[in-house]
Amino acid sequence: xxxxxxxxxxxxxxxxxxxxxxxxxxxxxxxxxxxxxxxxxxxxxxxxxxxxxxxxxxxxxxxxxxxxxxxxxxxxxxxxxxxxxxxxxxxxxxxxxxxxxxxxxxxxxxxxxxxxxxxxxxxxxxxxxxxxxxxxxxxxxxxxxxxxxxxxxxxxxxxxxxxxxxxxxxxxxxxxxxxxxxxxxxxxxxxxxxxxxxxxxxxxxxxxxxxxxxxxxxxxxxxxxxxxxxxxxxxxxxxxxxxxxxxxxxxxxxxxxxxxxxxxxxxxxxxxxxxxxxxxxxx
Length: 283
Description:
Layout: H1 4-19, H2 24-29, E1 35-42, E2 46-47, H3 51-61, E3 66-69, E4 76-77, E5 82-89, H4 90-120, E6 127-129, H5 139-148, E7 162-164, H6 166-172, H7 179-190, E8 196-200, H8 203-211, E9 216-220, H9 224-234, E10 239-243, H10 251-254, E11 261-263, E12 276-282
Parallel strand pairs: 6-11, 7-8, 8-9, 9-10, 10-11
Antiparallel strand pairs: 1-5, 1-12, 2-4, 3-5
């Protein structure tokens, strides 16, 4: 998922945004030839993600800067642990510091949040999924961070799986009854190679999706009791995904209902960044 060209392009855009015509403070204060070593360390327990992006950023800024990770991507790290050593031009390190930290803090936040949700399911075979509730233009990296946290990726976009949601069903009703069956049939006819998922708000819609032979059924905002009944109705015919009103506190009660997946928008759309700092170690 970490395509090198994509990483370089993103870093160039980010540096252009932050540096602009030049880092005025650093250029005025820091001697041109000064070489330093700095450490990037976490100030709270976390699951780390985004170090390859930080390395790419410093290389784009100054190929002479050496960025050496101390931990593997996806590793659980404790407060105070050094994530990477950076050595080279003091000017370059100071100029790239904030942007590099922004990347690692953001993606470590997603990985850390994902790991909390995965851990809350314990030994359940149910898997945590992300959603399309991502920052525009940064979806690949945010979904990568979910993987680093132990989650799995849902569809990447509108093109790699059919997802018949409530608004699709409502519009399909304009053509007559049995909207789910007709919508599934239309999708299979036009896109025979794509799997089909149907969002179901009621148990009757679950039955309709099963009759249409959808590969996946999304149980939207259902109670635990409704989902347990949906599992019984399904009898293993379709993969079942729970979504809507999924909180960390609720997850243990869902762990052994027989669901295949639980999708959580909160993994990406409102996750707090991890507190990570960069400090000069040798002057």
